[in-house]
Amino acid sequence: MTDATAGTVAQTTTPPQRRSWWRRLLRDRAAVLALVVLALIFAAAALAPWIAPYDPYASSRKVMLPPAWAARGTMEHLLGTDPQGRDILSRLLYGTRLTLLIGLSSILIGGMFGSFLGLLAAFYGRLDPWIMRVSDVLLSLPAILLGLALVAAMGQGIMPVVLALIISTIPDCARIARGIAMGIMKQEFIEAGRALGLPDRQLFVRYLLRNAISSILIFLSLRFGQLILIAASLSFLGLGARPPVAELGMMAAQGRDFFLFAPHIAVIPSVLILIIVLAANIAGDALRDVLDPRLQT
Amino acid sequence: MFSRKSSLLLSAALAAALPAAGLQAQEVKLARLIDSNSYDPHKTTATAAAEVLFMIADTLVAIDSDMKTLHPGLAKSWDISEDGLTYTFHLRDDVTFCDGKKMTAADVAFSFNRWIDPEVKSPVAWRAGQVDAITAIDDTTLEYKLKAPFSELLYQLTQNFAVVIDKETVDRLGPDFGVAGFNGTGPFCWGEWLPRDRFTMTRNPNYTWGPEIYENTGPAKVEKITWSIIPEANTITAALMTGQIDATNYAPHISLDQFETMPGFVVSPSDSARYTYFVGFKLDKPTVSDLAVRQAMNYAFDRVALVEDQFYGKVLPAYSYIATDTLDWSADVEKVLIQNYDIDKAKALLDEAGWSVGSDGIREKDGVKLKPVLYSLSGVWPNIIQALQAELLKVGIDLELNVFDPTVGWGKLATQEFDMFTMAYPYVSAGDAMNLYFRSGNTPAPNRTNWKDAETDAWLAAGSAALSDAERAENFGKVLYKVHEAVNWLPLYHAPIIIVQSDKLKPMTAHPIYGAAYYKGLGIEPAQ
Fold first, then answer.
1. Nearest residue in chain A measured CA to CA from B256
2. Are B292 and B346 spatial neighbours (Cβ–Cβ below 8 Å)?
3. Closest partner residue to B403 among A58, A238, A258, by Cβ?
4. Can you tell me the distance from the alpha carbon of A266 to that of A269, in angstroms, rounded to the nearest whole number?
5. How far is residue B280's CA from residue B487's CA, in Å, rounded to a whole number?
């Protein structure tokens, strides 16, 4: 019987407009464009080994060829080659793959821990001060500084960067999740659930988590763009992947020395970072507009 | 209120007046990438310090840009005793410090004794030889007594560590000497130092004792020189193109072709290169301890391609550990140099030595994967070592690259954690280079290859103690032969010093000494 009751309660909290949220999303042209671009980039990154025209690590004597549309450019290397004579398009595909993988894995792990802690803090009031003070401490550490410290301790590589991103996501996400959960905890259905004598675990998962999850996911989609940017900055500083692995921030850093004479080497990966972050932000924003019940009038 | 017309006229007049004003003021602006930690000649080995010290102070002996011919400096002449133990320097009597005080042999004796004073802990004290006593006989005679002959002494005395400084200033400034002030006898005087920003020096108007390698032996033709620190090669290029600076020897190689063809600029490389870039092997590590592996790497890396693709042909491919026109280079060594790029030979060498290709394409032998670890510093290196990594992969060697920021990198390079390392160094002569890197007493740094060989030590000692040029060359030649035969390094390239300057200045000759391209600065003068 309790199951049926819980189901009814959850249903009544769902606004009726929600069923057509994707229709409203489709009306937002910028959001559609951003989602299409993101989908293309994700697809290209996932398919990198099959669609890359060259081995991204194979060097050649054809160094610093400009892109095909510039003078001296060739169709053989559409985006030109880097100072080692490696095909920039192939490196870009592999680099995007790694950058997205870093962003996704840290957002998923960091988001999971962060939202769990945030919900826990809202659910059990006595844990709240402890969890929030710890997250305040973590909040005070900038991700870049954390990355530097972790690289100093663990050595250059992708793991310390992912770890830094996870640690910097946890407190942000915990704060947001706690805020959302506090609002839900004040709702009557929670009291109703309590009055019915539901166990904590069920209250937590079915009443709290289910109602909070969409708002948390929206926050994470917005946060994703920031994480990509921080990851790229860290590897631009030489803290991320080890050469010859391709990573967008590192590729931009490598091109910096040749900026006056072969700007495409730095500009192409930088523009791709810009596109990914912009698309992720626009898409996240649009999702929030259509999904967040608090924004609906 | 200016009308529009008059303000236009004004700016036209200003534009016309500016170049002339620039010449009258005679301030020359030079740019470089990094600053020194100090300008105390005995407390730093930085090239950035050498650049300034040669201009604000003088040495007893001067050296020509061929890095072989010696010329009188503060010493008019010198005598060497039969046993090679006593050098007597006859000094000029017309030399004054920047503060106007007369320079005497006592000042020289003070400077040299401070150089070798154990309390000063100079990292370059060994360059003075095994000194018995350095004393001023009278105002113009200095006696330099050695415990053992030191054939390199006169060459070492041309370097920036051997400049003459003023005792009173040293005593007055204490630890701030070379930081807050200085007092030397150079063509320029200490102006102001803002660390990591700029260093200014002003002309010493009384200077007339410049070395004879310059047409103008003093005073300098410009009133003021400002050295700016611009830590980005691209920004240096832009600053030079827009006229914010007048000359630099740190323009990136990629920009040189453009400067050569651009009106208003002159590019002048030094005649000889005395700065060599190389990869060294730790000879006692399981992978690179095998001679065949080291030889294979030398065959597998195309130095000509490196020089053309990464340096646009502006540096020289290196197969030897010092440039072959260096003092005491031995032609015999050419027999053991690996000069040809031959991938098949590299593979054959590895096969013969039992390094067979595994399933992942990487070679292994007795369970050891051929995966040497290389330590390097950020800056020019990442591009070079990535090229090396890609080339070595073609013969089945998987090089693991670790690039460090110089702040931690130098410490890392003094450990035994790695199999290979990168390094670049300036040198005067074969003896200078070989003593630095191959004396067993110099492990783990600067002898980072762990080359410990009694015969080498004996030859180095014999070469240093040699009484004749021939004897010195013979001994250092033997060392050169042995370390090349054993393939201690993978030499990469010899870099000449290249000055790029505006044509508002007379074309200069770049001097290779310790990377200090302008040497005494007496060649810096306005074109008119």
1. A261
2. no
3. A238
4. 6
5. 9
pTM summary value:
0.81
- Chain A CB contacts of B403 under 8 Å are 156, 238, 243
ipTM: 0.72
Q: A223 in helix, strand or coil?
A: helix
The listed CATH number (3.40.190.10, 3.40.630.10, 3.40.50.300, 3.30.365.10) that belongs to domain B30-270+497-515: 3.40.190.10
Count Cα atoms within 13 angstroms, Cβ side, for B126. 11
> Reduced to 3 states, what is the DSSP secondary structure of residue A77?
coil
- Contact status, residue A38 vs residue A229, Cβ threshold 8 Å: no
What are the DSSP E strand ranges found in B316-395? 316-317, 356-357, 363-365, 368-369, 373-377
> For residues B438 and B446, what is the distance between their CA atoms, to the nearest angstrom?
9
Q: How far is B376 from chain A (nearest CA, A)?
A: 12
* B403, β-bridge pairs: B376
C-beta separation of A121 from A132 below 8 A = yes
Report all structural domains of chain A as residue ranges with CATH numbers, in order of start. 18-56+65-295 (1.10.3720.10)
Question: Within a 10 A sphere around the Cβ of B71, how many other Cβ atoms?
Answer: 13
Peptide bond into A244 cis (omega under 30): yes
Question: Nearest 5°: phi and psi at A295?
Answer: -90, -5
pLDDT by residue for chain B (528 residues), tens digit each?
A: 344 444 444 444 444 444 444 444 589 999 998 888 899 999 988 889 999 999 999 999 999 998 889 999 999 999 999 999 999 999 999 999 999 999 999 999 999 999 999 999 888 888 899 999 999 999 999 999 999 999 989 999 999 999 999 999 999 999 999 999 999 999 999 999 999 899 999 999 999 999 999 999 989 999 999 999 998 888 999 999 999 999 999 999 989 999 999 999 999 999 889 999 999 999 999 999 999 999 999 999 999 999 999 899 999 999 999 999 999 999 999 999 999 999 999 999 999 999 999 999 999 999 899 999 999 988 788 889 999 999 999 999 999 998 887 767 878 888 899 999 999 998 989 999 999 999 998 887 789 999 999 999 999 999 998 989 999 999 999 999 999 999 999 999 999 999 999 999 999 999 999 989 999 999 999 987
Spell out the domain ranges in chain B: 30-270+497-515, 275-494
Contacts of B226 (CB under 8 A, 6+ apart): B27, B28, B29, B30, B198, B199, B200
Give A241→chain B minimum CA distance, Å.
11
Q: How far is A169 from chain B (nearest CA, A)?
A: 28
Find the CB nearest B402 among A156, A244, A262.
Answer: A156
* Cα-to-chain-centroid distance, residue A294: 23
- Residue A85: its chain B contacts at CB < 8 A? 309
CATH topology of domain B275-494: Dipeptide-binding Protein; domain 3 (3.10.105)
Chain A residues whose CB is inside 8 A of the B310 CB are 63, 83
CB-based contact B526:B224 (threshold 8 Å): no
CA-nearest residue to B311 within chain A is: A83
